[in-house]
Amino acid sequence: MILKERILVLKVFKYAESDLIVHGLNPLGARMGFLARGGAKSRKRFAGGLLEPGHYLEVAYKAGSGSDGDPLHTLQEASLVREFPKLRSDYTRLATALNWLKLVHKMSQQGVVDSPDLFNLIGNALAAAETTPDIDKLKTHFELKLLATQGVLPPEPHYQNWLGASLAQHEQIPSRGEDRRRIAEQVHDHLLHYLGTLN
Length: 199
Fold this sequence. Notes:
The chain folds into two domains: about 1-85, CATH 2.40.50.140; about 85-195, Up-down Bundle (de novo design (two linked rop proteins)), CATH 1.20.1440. With about 200 residues, it is α+β, with helices and mostly antiparallel strands. The N and C termini lie far apart (about 35 Å).
């Protein structure tokens, strides 16, 4: 039986000679794993560059079995829904986006695998990253909200302006240079404490 789903690709890595393992997040915030047989070479089913982190795809797959609750499905076909092309025209934007995808992937490994808020957050962050003139401020804003969705952000009063604004409004958040640097350092420390490593 062929099933269909939409996923935001979080991570892709090679398996065997020409196969790929694809990890994605669906709109309900559930992480899903797929085996794309021939994915590294097939141009018919997976056109060049289709299976890449940051791409929003519609996929057709055969459900996998697994007693550990994290089955590996067999990917049959994939088509592009959205690719955030402006991210790939700027190194800093792309590097920041890939780091966010890595963070979301690690957090889903921590056991938080069903959160629509997480899916919406990373989608909105990628969209904002395409055009923001202040990628560093957006990075801090995203990471604050990411920690908040996991319930691990300390209730500091100086975070409230950031948490009350949408990612699209990040430029409007009042933040002086020294305060902003301090918050960015705190966020980095909170992420490191929660995940153990950021690599």
